[in-house]
Predict the structure.
Amino acid sequence: MNIQAMAQDIPVEGEHTMEGVDFITSGDQYLTFLLAQEQYAVDILCVEEIRSWEQPTKIPNAPSYIKGVINMRGIIVPIVDLRLKFSIGEASYLDTTVVIVLTYHNEGNSRTIGFVVDAVSDVLNVDNADIKPAPAFGGCVGPQYIEGLINSENKVVTILNVAHLQKVEQHRLHS
């Protein structure tokens, strides 16, 4: 599933029709998704595409949360299961399970990684003033991965920091 095609079906508040996808021009829009019934979001400008789940090619001695790699139009993309990485629920692969492929650009470099999630939810328009800092108590998701929290329709959505998601820690073998 291509994010551009998905965006064409999402109405913009106050508009009845949408002419293309040129409304995606700021970091104020976030793609929301589910992990074990909790809502999370990432900056939509980092979303390369949304793919249905398919078993990637396994990598020997990789951490359990790295499911393997896929070949996406000539680019080798590592696939990370966020449920396993953050120890959130069971890793079951259903019809709604998708891979969100994110590309992060930093200082002339870019990195593309796919993240397995339970389901894609929606696109949220968020005013930066509505983003609240995450509380300083522990949780499944480390504070370095959390950019902030927003309230959306009586639910709290955790906005994830794409730059930190792109840093896959070195796997250390125990001797």
About this structure: Strands lie at 29-35, 38-43, 47-52, 66-72, 75-81, 98-106, 109-117, 119-125, 146-152, 155-160. The first helix runs from residue 3 to 8. Confidence is low (pLDDT under 50) at residues 11-27, 170-175. The chain has one domain: 3-165.
